[in-house]
Amino acid sequence: MLFKLVVFGFVAILAYMFFTGKLGQLAKIKKQKIDATNMIECETCGSYVAEKDAVHANGNSYCSKSCRDA
Ligand SMILES: [Zn+2]
Fold it and tell me: Burial code of 31-64, b = ≥16 C-beta within 10 A, e = fewer?
């Protein structure tokens, strides 16, 4: 009996979230977080690195100082 109530409550919450569009909003927020970390390609070795961790020199971007100096 209690189990049925819990399942019903869970389904009701899911339905409520679906109809109020909250599920869509959550998905959007997740996507924005992923997009916020801009990945750029290293000019030397071709591996991808987060823009904040990249080394910039001469208008190019590198994954590390050793790639920049290579
Ligand atoms: Zn590199």
Answer: eeeeeeeeebebbbeeeebeeeebbeeeeebbbb
For residue 43, how far is its CA from the centre of ligand 1 (angstroms)? 7
* Per-residue confidence (pLDDT) for residue 15, from 0 to 100: 87
Residues with CB under 5 A from ligand 1 (ion): 42, 44-45, 63, 67
Look over the chain and give the mean of its residue pLDDT values, rounded to a whole number: 86
Residue span of the structural domain in which 56 resides: 38-70
Q: Are residues 25 and 48 located together in one domain of the fold? A: no
46 and 67 in a single domain? The answer is yes
Residues 44, 32 share a domain: no
Whether this prediction's pTM lies above 0.85 is answered by: no
